[in-house]
Each structure stands twice: as C-alpha cells, then as structure tokens.
C-alpha cells in the first residue's frame, strides 16, 4: 500500500487527519477505554495507535506484510502495546472482540460479503461492527477519484475503483443477512473553512461512517 504510513505529509496524510473524527464517532456509542478492538485492514497502524492512546486493548491485522512491518516498527518506537498479526492468526478466537473495525477497507475488497463473514465469528454477541467507506454515487466518483486522486493528488492515482464503492443500503442488507441490528450511518466531509480538516455532515452521498451490532 503506502511506502511510509507515518509521513504526516505523505500519501496517508488524510488517514492521520481522520483519526480524531473516527474517535468521536466511536465514542458516540461507547467508551473506548478497555475495549477489545480488532482493526481490520490496519495498514501501518495509524488508527490502531490512536485507539491504544485512548486506552483500548487493540489488535491490528492486514493482508499486506509490509504494512504490518511498519505498524510493528512504529509501535516499538512509541511503546504501544498492540498486537499486529496476519488475518490467519486471529481465526482461532471466536466471540473474542467487542468491536470489529473496517475503516476505509471495504471499498478495496473484491468479495464484500465473504470478507465481512470471515471476521464475523470473532465478534461477541452484542458487539459492534463499525467503519467508514465511500458511497457509490456520481458525486463520489468526482470527489473521491477525479478530485482526490488526479487533481488534488491527496492519494495515489488508482487507489479507488468506483465499482467497489458501496451504497449504505447494500451494506445494511449485508449485515442483516449475517444477523445484525441497529444500523446507523453518518456522513462526513472535508471542510475548507473549519479548523478541523474533516467534519460530520448530514449527507452520505460520498463518505460515511457506519455502525451495527451482532445479535
């Protein structure tokens, strides 16, 4: 993925900017402190460390070995007590985690249902599945691909495939098939006129957070 996840001005800079908003979204549902959280698609550990600093018991996983290597290296330097392992490592832990996170992950997978179903058994009954992704709309094509990748060059070109973007109703239906309840979606956007780079908004036609719980 990214060669240097921890470069604040590099290709992962937006993920650094998003951490405070992500924290706020999670804390609107529960206290993070002490929660057993699995950060699926953790990349270089940017959000995993933000959660750890809030007192969570964090594990992170990613299919990219180089990303996990960067995450472990940074955690060693910051003394962050986080378990970073490949996906296979966690499969022997049914009903273990209280929260499964998919932050900017699901729009990058080829088989959406199979990906979510793979991790679902690890979540305790009543646990939360939370994350953020990109809606599949005309607006998201221009904002998330044309503008972000080619005009503003916030992220490398080719990062996104519009056909992999997910409409909220599709995600809600998928989770209900797995046996979940309590769907919540929350839009967010980049703000030119706020001291915070990213803010919540009513519209979900581009970026949105989601939360749902396992029965």
Automatic annotation (TrEMBL):
Keyword Methyltransferase annotated: yes
Source superkingdom: Bacteria
Parts forming coiled coils: none
UniProt KW keywords: Methyltransferase, S-adenosyl-L-methionine, Transferase, Ubiquinone, Ubiquinone biosynthesis
Pfam families for this protein: Methyltransf_23 (PF13489)
Tagged with keyword Signal: no
A single GO BP: methylation
Record GO terms (molecular function): 3-demethylubiquinol 3-O-methyltransferase activity; polyprenyldihydroxybenzoate methyltransferase activity
This protein's name: Ubiquinone biosynthesis O-methyltransferase
Organism field: Holospora curviuscula
